[in-house]
Automatic annotation (TrEMBL), chains A, B:
Gene3D superfamilies: alpha/beta hydrolase. This is Acetyl esterase/lipase. Pfam families: Abhydrolase_3 (PF07859). Keywords: Hydrolase, Signal. Residues 130-328 form the Alpha/beta hydrolase fold-3 domain. It comes from Shimia sagamensis. Residues 1-25 form the signal peptide. Belongs to the 'GDXG' lipolytic enzyme family.
Amino acid sequence: MKHSSVLKIALTTALIAAISVPAFATQSAADLAAEGLPMAARTVPVPIGISPQMQALIESRVVSETMPAAETVEEWLAVQAQLDAANAQAAEMMLAKSGATYSTEEIAGVTIYRVTPAEVKPRWADTVFVHVHGGAFVFNGGKAALNEAVWMAHGLGVEVISVDYRRPPLHPFPAATDDVIAVWNNVIQQYDPAKVAMFGTSAGGNLTLSTLLQLRDAGLPLPGAIMAGTPATDLAEVSDSWLTLKGLDPLGGHDGAIEGTFALYAGDTDAADPRLSPVYGDLDGLPPSILLTGTRDLLLSDTVRMHRVLRDAGVTADLHVYDGQSHGDYIAGYLIDAPETKDAWRELNAFFDLHLN
Amino acid sequence: MKHSSVLKIALTTALIAAISVPAFATQSAADLAAEGLPMAARTVPVPIGISPQMQALIESRVVSETMPAAETVEEWLAVQAQLDAANAQAAEMMLAKSGATYSTEEIAGVTIYRVTPAEVKPRWADTVFVHVHGGAFVFNGGKAALNEAVWMAHGLGVEVISVDYRRPPLHPFPAATDDVIAVWNNVIQQYDPAKVAMFGTSAGGNLTLSTLLQLRDAGLPLPGAIMAGTPATDLAEVSDSWLTLKGLDPLGGHDGAIEGTFALYAGDTDAADPRLSPVYGDLDGLPPSILLTGTRDLLLSDTVRMHRVLRDAGVTADLHVYDGQSHGDYIAGYLIDAPETKDAWRELNAFFDLHLN
C-alpha cells in the first residue's frame, strides 16, 4: 500500500470520528475505553488568549502534588491557623491597594466585617452585598475573608458585609449556613432583600447556593441576585474537570486535603444532600445567578453542571468562562489592574444592576 | 522533623497557593514553569455529570493520534470525497429519524438545501434559518451538511436553508463566505432579516461570524441573531484547550490535518485577518449571539475567548458549556433523545424567540 493511501485511510478514519459519525471501537479498544480515555503526559505553555498580567501570573505558577489530608483535629486547626494568618496578610495588601476600610461587628452572635470602598457608587448607595468567603469550608476565616470582600467592594463601589461563619473541624454543616442565615435575617431588617446580592467563590459559592435553598424552604426572603464563583457544587462525586485539568491549577487535586475538607464539613450529613451538593437540589424559585470559572479551573465541571441545572429549573443564570484561568483566578487581588479583573467587575456590575431591584 | 510537621508545612504551602496568595517559585522552578506546566499522563473515566446516553457515547469513544495533513491537492480531494460520502450517509439516518425532508435548489448560483421539519412551529412560520455547515472548512459539503441543518430544523421546528459553499483545496477564502453572502442577499429579499437566524458549528461558526463582519462592513442587513457553536475563532494561534484537553476529543489535535485545513482555507490571506480569525475583529454592531461548547472540547478556549470579546464589544452573547462534551457533541444526531440534545434545543429556541423580531 502506498504512503498516500495509508494516509488517506488514516485521515479518513480520524476525521469521520471527528466530525459527525460516531466511532465504533474494536472490542479490545472498547474494553480499554471503558476504563477511560488516556491523556498523554505533556507540558502546556502559557495560554495565548489572556492579558500580559495574567500570563505573568501563570508563568510564575508552580503546581504542587496533591497534599494528604491532615489526620487529627489538632493538625487541621494548626493548618487552619497558618492559612488564615497568611491570607489575612494578603487581605491587608488588598485593603491598602484599594483604599477600602472595614469595621468588625457582631450580628446575631456572628462576627462580620463591614467593608466600605473608597467610593460608594450611587447605584449601590441604598444596599449592601453579603459575602460568604471561600477556602474549602475550613480555611480563610477571620480577616482572610476580606480578600474577596474588598475585591467586590472596590470593584463595584458597594458596601459589603462578610460573614465570618463557623467552620470545621470544630463546626461541621450546618453551622456555616446557620451563621449566614442568622446574619441574612438581620440584614433584611435594614435593607430591601430584593436590593441585596449574596456572593461567594469556591466553598463560598456552595454556601451561597445552600443558603438560598434553605431560605426558600423556610419561606424566608431571598436575595435579589447572587454570584456563585467557581462553586463546589458536588461534594458526593468527583466532577470531570478535577481529573482532566489536574496539573494546571494550583488547587492541586480532589484527593487528599480537599477530599478531607469536604468530609470534615459534611460531618454526619449525606454528601449528596442538596444543602451540601446543590447540583442535586430542587432549584425552583432561586434568584438570578451569575457563575464564573476558567478553562484551567478544577471546578469547571462543578460550575457548568450547576449552570445547566439552574437553567433547566428556569432560573436566570449567566455563565462566564475565562480562558486559561484556574480556580478563583478572577479574584486575584494582586491583579487589580488586569483586564480580566475589570471585565469581571463590569459583568458583575451589569448583572446586579439588571437584576437587583 | 515529625511527620505531622512535614504534613502541615506541605499542606500549608499547597493551600496558600491554592486559595489566595500567589505562589512565588524558586528560580529553577520558575525557569521550568516558563516553558509551561507539566500535566502527568492519566486515564480519565467517563464524566459523572452527564446523561446515560452521553456516557455511552463517551464510553465507546476512541481518540486517535493526530493525523498528518494530506500532501497534495489530489489527496485532499480524495479525503474530502470520502468524508462527504460518509457523512452524507449519516445525514440520511438523521432525515429518516426526524421525518424532515429537503429539496436541492440553486440560489444566486450556489447550491442550497432547503430542509422542512415534520412540523413547523407557529413561532417560526414566517422565517427561515440560514445554516453554514462545519467540517474544518474542507469537509462535510454536499448532503453531509444536512446533519446539522436537520438537527436544527427538527429541534426547533423551523425551515432551514443550508449553504453548500465552495471549499478548499480548490476554493480558499473568501469563496465560502462569498457564497454565504450571495445566498443571504437573496434570502432577505423574501424574509425580514431581523427575523432570520444564521448558525453553524466549528468552521461553520467561524464562517457565520466572518459573514457578519463582512455584511456589517458592507452596510448590508444582518441576521437578527446567530448561533456560533464551538467556533474556530483563531486560525493564527493555538488556543490553550487544543493542548490541555488533547486526548479527550475525537477531533484529535491541532497539528497535522487540522492545521493543514486551516492553511488551505486561508490561502494567501493573513490568518490573523478578522475575516479568518474573528476573535481579533472589531465586533461592534454584531447581533445577539449564542455560543455552545463542552468541557472536553478542543475548541473550548476558542469559544470562550470569542464570548469574552463579544461581551466586551457590547454584543449580547450567551455561553453554554456542556460538561464532558467534546467538539460538536451537542449536534450528535444519533443522540436525538438525549437530555443534553433537548437542553440545547430549549436554549436555542428560547434565545431566538427572545432576539428574533
